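Mods, move this if it's the wrong board.
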Amino acid sequence: MSARTKSLFGYIFPAMGGLFATYLYNVVDGIFVGQGVGSAALGAVNIAVPFITFVVTAAAMFPMGGATVAAIRMGRGDKEGANHAFMAAFSLTIFLSLILIWESPCCWGATPFGSRRLRRKL
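Not the wrong board. Structure tokens:
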């Protein structure tokens, strides 16, 4: 096996492991909900899977892109540019996280303000 292939597998298997763990959560959640609550709740869990997939991809978008840009800049010897790329990716990740938390339907009823907001949206 060539050095390139070994390097490729060194990146592929951790990424696959992370995705496996993420979706294993959905499977285990479905098992517990299906056994504990019933088939209607299991359907609700399955309807939520595309939303969970969107959140996972959105949360991974900026860190992966930022790490790539930072690695390229560090390889060129541009440490200031790498730091700038890292901070931009970090800031965008925090910003996106706050937007996802603010717009999350599960958070709408958590406060009196959220209850009014939910009623307006419905």
